[in-house]
Amino acid sequence: MNKNQADDSSSSFSVAVTGSGGSGAVTTGRILLEAAAYSGFQGLMTRSAGPQIRGGESAAMVRFSADPVECMGDQYDLLVALDWLNIERFADEIPLSDKSLILCDPAAGEVPVLLRSNGAEIREVPFKVFASGLPEGRLNMVALGAAAVICGLELSAMEVGVRRVLASKGEQVVETALRALGLGYNHDQRPAKTMPLPGKQDNVWSITGNQACGVGALRGGVRFVAAYPITPASEILEWLAPRLEKLGGSLLQAEDELASINMIIGASFGGVPSLTATSGPGLSLMVEGLGLALVSETPVTVVNVMRGGPSTGIPTKSEQSDLNIALYGLHGDAPHLVFAPLSIRDCVFTTQWAVQLAEHLQTISLVLSDQSLGQSRAIVETPSALDLPWRRTIEASPDGDYRRYQITAENISAMTLPGTPGGMYTADGLEHNVRGTPSSMAVDHREQLNKRLRKLEDFDFGDEWAEIEGEGTQCIITWGSSAGVVKEVAWQFRQQGNAIRTIAIRLLAPLQRRALSQAIEGMNRILVVEQNHGGQLFQYLCAQDVLPMTASSLAQPGPLPLRPGRILRALDE
Amino acid sequence: MPVPALKAKDYKSDIKPVWCPGCGHFAVLSALTKAMAHLGLVKEKVAVVSGIGCSSRLPAYIDSYGFHGIHGRALAAASGLKAARPDLTVVVAGGDGDGFSIGGNHFLHACRRNMDMTYIVMDNEVYGMTKGQASPTTRPTWSNSKMTPHGTGIPCFNPAAIALAAGAGFIARGYSGQPSEMTRLLVEAIEYPGFAFVQVLSGCVTFRPDQRSWKEDVHPFINDVPTEDRIKAAQIIQADDGMATGVIYASQYPVWQPDNQKETELSLLEEEFDL
Predict the structure, then answer these.
(1) Average pLDDT, chain A
(2) Chain A contacts of B264, Cβ < 8 Å?
(3) How many domains does chain B have?
(4) Residue B1: pLDDT above 60?
(5) Alpha-carbon span A355 to A334, nearest angstrom
(6) Mean pLDDT of B174-200
(7) Cis preceding linkage at A198, omega within 30
(8) Residue A19, beta-bridge partner list
(9) What is the nearest CA distance from A11 to chain B, expressed in angstroms?
(10) Is residue A9 over pLDDT 70?
(11) A415 in helix, strand or coil?
(12) Where in chain A is the domain with CATH 3.40.920.10?
């Protein structure tokens, strides 16, 4: 994104809203984001919460700009503290500087030293006093009004935001909120820094990454989902359930992940494009089923919204640490497709692409989203509807000598669906011959192994395997959600007059070795950036022998997001 | 022109079963094809789904669509298939280990989900494919497996009682040595609108030669069966020695099936994201 956090003339604004349980920090952030969007900005809101099911401290981080926003910056311009309870849990997630401003209520007590020590300016507004003057008045709306002034947003835009977010709570709540907002807005009219308001834009969506994966699934033709609830993937399922119904499909809540993967395999065998969504522990349980889908050539897609691992790990926070299981988790020789969306907006395209390629290639697609994409909300240009050509090859009228696993030029065999006369076969997890009859003969095993490998290796995935930008002799390779922060680093780098190339990999398997080798030709500095501890992409690229010996790895585990400054420092090392 | 009615043999595929000579499963295969012929099922509108084990090889031997999946997950695959394709007749086949041990959770939830399908468990109280280990229905003192040299020492799983407790609406037990009764049970099970559970005592000649005595051990229920009364069914099942055959319980519960009526377009749904 096009901005420079360290510079006062920067074209983005970053706000963190924190508060204890029930204080409405996330609602406040959401309204701010919607108001910024209404003013013509693009933006991003991430959230952070403690482990409590309900209540407990929470924080909303909002960044907006005239340009696309795909990551949080190095620092925050504004911290809106609704109160100071448990603020220490967020302190390291909200870096402040002497250019930052802290907006708080003197009634909440002293600004903690932890936050004051960096020299941020403190602006006090009596949230509580103003709010208590209104029946059912809420102090977060007072704070929101005061924050809007500092952000340079107009009152009318704030009112639209309030109405959009609170409409479902009834007119009374909206009216009270608007009055509280006005009190905060009119109290102190000194803005912090002014960014020109771009004016309301057309063709803009407000969407979370989990919703975007849902949209991509539906666009790809998915009409059956079976799934088991898990953080942070459940919102995909909750969004899809009522919408699938309206589209003539269905979502079945399964008894466990072993059931969900096998249910979607059953439905796909019946001819309906099918998907499940889960997170690390659920993916672990699904792996045997994935092998079955792969060998029986029954297309399915799994969206895996990654969280801190291994085991139960850190369920509510992001990490890109499931690449290894996605690539290598299956037993046997099991080539398949692994994707990672590069932004919230890209969740739409990548999921659609993954579903349709699974269908076309009759294999399994794993989509590695993560918590930072899934549970964050973005204001983005509407992703246009794409009519991708990839579909399942169906044999509707077999000629009497039907062979389900026939070897063909593209190694894709036409599939009959139950109900088709003359096309009957038994799909099997056992190795089989071209007719699907179980076989333990070497010749059949080799023939089918080759078929399942070649159909992927020989397929032309086009240019979508990665997003490649920039020139020069330095290069950052990254994947999935880390693409956002890498883009920002590249922009800052170029602002300083330096050239840099970035390669953000969307299709991780099969690795497009030749194209990647071409993209890094002539680079004398290569840094592989990812959010995990083991450098899983780096290790993968080393194993595939595409990196020169001089390449290095920047692997930072969750839960803290990768920040531009950290990557810039690594480039200098 | 009227199509000549299919005979039982028309429902058999040309693949030779891997089963041992004398295996009870041959009789189950035969009874299933007879039931299909009796009902006049259209072959391509039938899907037979299974997991892993000797009995789970059955789908390949039926001339219909089949899905031979992974160990314990047959009911899950079948439930997804039925949800997506309500027009199909779905028959699930498997063994006691597949259904009650590794697949036990799916058994419980398939009973309570009550989708319209038939579940045949060929129960021989042993893992045959892995060469003779104790299964959930093996008596606790059976010590012929090297893996449990003193017997399992734990009580066996009572499939009918558990099916009833989990909410199944149709529960029957047959014996592979009584093929005509078994055929009748399967006809009723397939016709039953909902989840129909049929436990078939189907002996293993190789690892449980002692099961030859089943011929003498099986008997009809002493009570009036079937009953529609859940409490009575529970009493009958608890009083039974596990060797009585017949339909035990047949009642009606709401069948679960998603409503697949399309009412809108995706582009309209996407408008919710517009600012």
Answers:
(1) 94
(2) 246-247
(3) 1
(4) no
(5) 18
(6) 98
(7) no
(8) A58
(9) 22
(10) no
(11) strand
(12) 12-187
What pTM was estimated for this model as a whole?
0.96
Tokens 């582009």 correspond to B267
**3-state DSSP assignment of residue B38:** helix
pLDDT score at A86:
83
CATH topology of domain A206-381: Rossmann fold (3.40.50)
8-state DSSP, A165: H
In this predicted structure, the answer to whether residue A300 has a pLDDT above a threshold of 80 is yes
Reduced to 3 states, what is the DSSP secondary structure of residue A466?
A: strand
Find, among A396, A404, A477, A407, the residue nearest to A437 by Cα.
A404
What is A464-572's CATH topology?
Rossmann fold (3.40.50)
Contact (CB, 8 A) for A560 and A314: no
Range of the domain at B178: 15-273
CA distance A421 to B67: 17
Asked, for residue B8, whether it belongs to a domain, the answer is no
Given a cut of 80, whether residue A68 has pLDDT beyond it is yes
A-B contacts at Cβ under 8 angstroms: 179
**Does residue B112 sit within a domain?**
yes
Q: Which residues belong to CATH 3.40.50.920 in chain A?
A: 464-572
Residues A174/A166, Cβ–Cβ less than 8 Å: yes
Contact B31, B181 (CB under 8 A): no
Sheet holding A507-509, edge to edge: A250-253, A224-227, A274-278, A300-306, A364-370, A337-339, A507-509
Beta pairing, strands A552-555 & B89-95:
unpaired
Residue B10 lies in a domain: no
Q: Under an 8 A CB cutoff, do A247 and B269 touch? A: yes
Q: Do A204 and B274 touch (CB under 8 A)?
A: yes
Q: Quickly state the pLDDT bin for A30 (edges 50, 70, 90).
A: very high
Structural tokens at position A383: 């992703």
Rounded mean pLDDT of chain B?
96
CATH class for the domain made up of A12-187: alpha beta
Helix axes A564-572, A483-495, angle to 10 degrees: 60
3-state class (DSSP) for residue B263: coil
Residue A55 has pLDDT above 80, yes or no: no
Q: Which of B217, B236, B166, B222 is nearest to B195 (CA)?
A: B166
Strands across the sheet containing B170-175: A426-428, B65-68, B46-50, B89-95, B117-123, B195-201, B170-175, B244-250, B219-220
Mutation target among A243, A262, A379 for the B interface, most CBs of B within 10 A: A262
Q: Is the CB of residue A101 less than 8 Å from the CB of residue A192?
A: yes
Q: Give kind and range of the element (H or E) at residue A298.
A: none
> Which has the closest alpha carbon to A483: A564, A404, A409?
A564
The answer to ipTM > 0.90 is yes
Quote the CA–CA distance of A103 and A82 in Å, as a whole number: 9
CB atoms closer than 10 angstroms to residue A110: 10
Query: Do A250 and B47 count as a contact with CB atoms less than 8 A apart?
Result: no
Mean pLDDT of A83-102: 90
Nearest residue on chain A to B102, alpha-carbon basis: A258
Helix ranges, chain B (H): 25-39, 74-84, 96, 104-113, 159-166, 179-191, 214-217, 230-239, 266-269
Of A247, A263, A426, the CB nearest to B266: A247
pLDDT band for A169, please (50, 70, 90 cuts): very high
- For the segment A467-512, what is each residue's pLDDT rounded down to a tens digit? 999 999 999 999 999 999 999 999 999 999 999 999 999 999 999 9
- Decide: A266 and B67 in contact? Cβ < 8 Å: yes
B262 interaction partners in chain A (CB closer than 8 Å): 246-248
Handedness of CA B68, B70, B72, B73 (dihedral sign): negative
The string of pLDDT tens digits covering residues A438-469 is 999 999 999 999 999 999 999 999 999 999 99
> CA end-to-end span of chain A, whole Å?
24
Calculate mean pLDDT across residues A530-551.
97
Which domain CATH number covers B262?
3.40.50.970
A445: amino acid identity, one letter: H
Q: What backbone phi and psi angles, to 5 degrees, belong to A290?
A: -60, -40
